[in-house]
Structure formats: structure tokens, C-alpha cells
């Protein structure tokens, strides 16, 4: 035993040192762009599965059989996602639909790949010219393709990266860009954590040109950190995910004031306090997980609740709920989220492991 520990200790120190420098690299290499604007391609922030939507819409720390979580943190790919294919569909507002699909594949015991797509379809619109004369119908769509790779470093740590080509077509205007995500995850049975630097990249082609050339906008760069904890003697799991760690003021880049509009259209500026602003960076999730084949989840997104608040009107904006169960060889999930006052979005996911049908 003493011999094993003597050789194991240098190996553990080696991994810890590399992980430390990896984290420092992620945080420092993007410092120059951490104060950019809100960015284009905001559909990348939408929930990628019914499970993630149920516990707040964002989670970068939960390693499980739901391969959809790898779209939020590529380091969450693992042996359980080998051969798993997942489809996610949701209604948003009016006839707007969004969804995702992803397939995972393992290479040996320590290397994992996944291929996915995330999209939003804004529906069909009637076109009119400046004189109010009907011209023709048109559509608007955004789509991102995900190619992810993760490597298992040891029994606890996994690192991963994602390459994301992005295409956007809004009527006759089109744009495309490319982004990358860098993530690391820690998993120790009852406790897991994840860190992700998201959307490091650029808009290669803007929607339109000006006298100064192609008009380009920044991508929605974000740094996210999350922790998930399951109790040893109770089927309860809590998750806390912090986002926008690269900027403090998520209300306005130049001030800490928000504007609240009532039913009469009166705009009342109010000061956002320190505690309120801090909680706008946090998303809370709780799950009841008696087995690996069933869960009931709920989440709270304080920023969404505050931004969707309307004076004199109560709503469940900011809250989300959902459940999932394994039926035969398929995992099915359903969630409901109120993204806007008076409008509820429903999300449905189904996944299966193709290894149960054919070996990969």
C-alpha cells in the first residue's frame, strides 16, 4: 500500500498542476474580451433539454446519462453518454420553436466525442414594403453545429472543448460565425462541479454592411461555474450555477439602474442593489431522484424573474418545473417554463442508447 501511494501521489500532483494551469489559462486568455456587449446569436442561451430546463435552464456541473448537458459543458461527456442519441423540442412564443439534437461516441475509456445541432425557428412572416403593400412571406432561422471532444484525465477530472459553426438567416439578411467552448468538470459521486468558458469566437459575416465595411457584433461570451450536490441518505440533489462571471452588471453595462414598465406604459427607473445583482448571476435547481431512471425537478432563475416582472401582475416567471422517466429503452423528459408573463413554454426530450440496439 505504501508503494502504491508513493507512486500515486506524484501522478495526482501532476494532474492537479495541469488542471490549475488550465483554469488560469481559461480565465486570463479571455480577459481582453470579457467586457464586450450582449452579443448576437442569443439563441445559444436557450435550454438544451427538458431536464436542464426543469432545473433552471442552465447547468454545467451535472454528469449523467442526459447527453444534452454536454451542449452546455463538453467536459460532461463520459462513458455513460457513449452511443446515446437525444432529441429536444420546445415551443417558445407564438409559433416560435426551438430544439436540439446530439449524439455521443466514445473512443476507448478516456476519450469522448459528440456531434450536435441547436436551432430556433422564428416562424413565417408576411412581408410588406414601405407603402404597406404585401410582397411575400419570409422565414427566420438560427442554427449552431456542435463538435465536442472530452478527455477523462483521472477518476475525478474531465476536460473538454466544443467547436460551434453558427448560421443565421433572417429574411434576406444572413450571418455566420464560429465559437468555441472550453470546459472542465469534477465528479466525486455525491459532489460534482463544472467550469465553462463559452462562445469564444467571432461573427465572421455580419447581417449588413455600412460605409465602414461589414458590420460585426460580438458573440455572447460567458463564464459559468456550477456545483451539484446529492445527499447520501436522501434522494435529493441541489445545483447552483453562476453565469456571466466575466461581468458584474447584467442589467446595464454602464449603470446599475433598471427600468420597470407598468400597464400604463410609465417607465420607473429603480436602483438594483448589491444582493439583487448578485442573485441575478445565480440559477438554483433541486431534484427528487429516487432512482437513476426517474427525476422530478424545479428551478429558479432570479434574473429572468426580475426582468419579466410587471407591476401589478403576478406570475411564475423565473420558475421552472419538469420530470423525466425511463420507459423501456427510452428516457423521456418534459418541462414547463414561463419565459414571459402570460406565456408558458413546454419542452419535450427523448433519448436512447443505441448500444442497446446495435454495438458502437
Order of helices and strands: HHEEEEEEEEEEEEEHEEHEEE
* Rg estimate, integer Å: 22 Å
Main beta-sheet strand count, sense and barrel state: 14 strands, antiparallel, barrel
Number of helices: 4
Task: Estimate percent helicity.
Answer: 10-25%
Strands of the largest sheet, in order across it?
1-2-3-4-5-6-7-10-11-14-15-16-17-18
SSE-based structural type: mainly beta
- Distance N terminus to C terminus? 38 Å
Poorly predicted runs are 1-16, 18-37
Oligomeric category = single chain
What would the principal axes of the Cα set say about the shape? Answer: globular
What percentage of amino acids are in beta strands?
A: over 45%
Mean pLDDT across the residues is 85
Could you explain how this protein is built, in words?
The chain has helices at residues 2-29, 50-54, 274-279, 302-307, and strands at residues 84-91, 97-107, 111-128, 134-152, 157-170, 173-188, 191-205, 209-210, 213-214, 222-230, 236-242, 257-261, 267-271, 282-291, 294-301, 319-327, 330-340, 343-353. It is mostly beta strands and 360 residues long. The strands form three sheets. Strands 1-2-3-4-5-6-7-10-11-14-15-16-17-18 form a 14-stranded antiparallel beta barrel. It has a two-stranded antiparallel ribbon with strand order 8-9. The longest helix has 28 residues, at 2-29. The chain is globular and about 65 Å long. Residues 1-16 and 18-37 have low confidence and may be disordered.
